[in-house]
Amino acid sequence: MELTAPATLRIRDHGIELAIPFEACRLYHGEDSIGGLAFGYRRVCFALSKLSPGRTADRRDFRFKTAFPGPGVIDALEMTTRAVSRGALEVIPPESAPRCAPEAVYGRLYFEASLGGPGLCLCAREGIMSEDFIRTGRSVKAGGRDPALLAHWTELKRALARAAMAARDEELFAIVPEGGETRNA
User: Fold this and answer.
1) Spatial distance between the Cα atoms of 122 and 71, rounded to a whole number of angstroms
2) Domain residues of the chain, as ranges?
3) 122-137: b or e for each residue (b if 16 or more CB lie within 10 Å)?
4) Is the distance from CB of 47 to CB of 120 less than 8 angstroms?
5) What is the pairing mode between strands 63-66 and 89-91?
């Protein structure tokens, strides 16, 4: 399956600018949670565009919180910012996410990112993960091993990856200001 991100993520590490294409994240993670990986990569790109416009941010300055600890999302975050290994990621309880944050297979699609100053709070747009995606994912996570179910799950994850890469930022994310009501990205 060919996936191309709209842009290559650029971030600084110990004074060296790194260009991290989506394919590097894919090689790091594999294909199992490809939908979450693509969504997570786009989320880091979006956060960089909002928190560090016109300059390359240092990955050591990034801090994240999320109510969605999916393996693809987490691996995209680790590969690009090293937030997990640096202890710069906090997983928050889903019930502490704003009401506007859509449900996911587990948790809620709510994220916070900061670069040492004021942060960015955002939710995924409603419908990014379809009801079928959530229902099927929950069945698989609960131990469902029917070959047809697993094949459907694989296709749903691939469809999410394609959609995440093809979408414009404002189709994926909504910024959440204080008070929990979303506004356009």
Assistant:
1) 19
2) 9-184
3) bbbbeebbeeebbebb
4) yes
5) parallel
The Cα 66–Cα 109 span in angstroms is 8
The pLDDT tens digits along the chain (185 residues) read: 888 888 899 999 999 999 999 999 999 999 999 999 999 999 999 999 999 999 999 999 999 999 999 999 999 999 999 999 999 999 999 999 999 999 999 999 999 999 988 899 999 999 999 999 999 999 999 999 999 999 999 999 999 999 999 999 999 999 998 656 555 55
Residue-by-residue DSSP string for the chain: -----SS-EEEEETTEEEEE-HHHHHHHH-STTHHHHHHHHHHHHHHHHHHSTTSPPBGGG-EEEES---HHHHHHHHHHH-TTTTT-EEEPPGGGS-TTSPB-SSSBSEEEEESSSS-EEEEEPTTSS-HHHHHHHHHHHTT---HHHHHHHHHHHHHHHHHHHHS-HHHHEEE--TTS--EE-
Domain 9-184 has CATH 3.30.1330.130: yes
Amino acid at 90: E
CA distance linking residue 151 with residue 135, whole number of Å: 14
* Distance, CA of 62 to CA of 167 (rounded, Å): 24
CB distance 66 to 84 below 8 Å: no
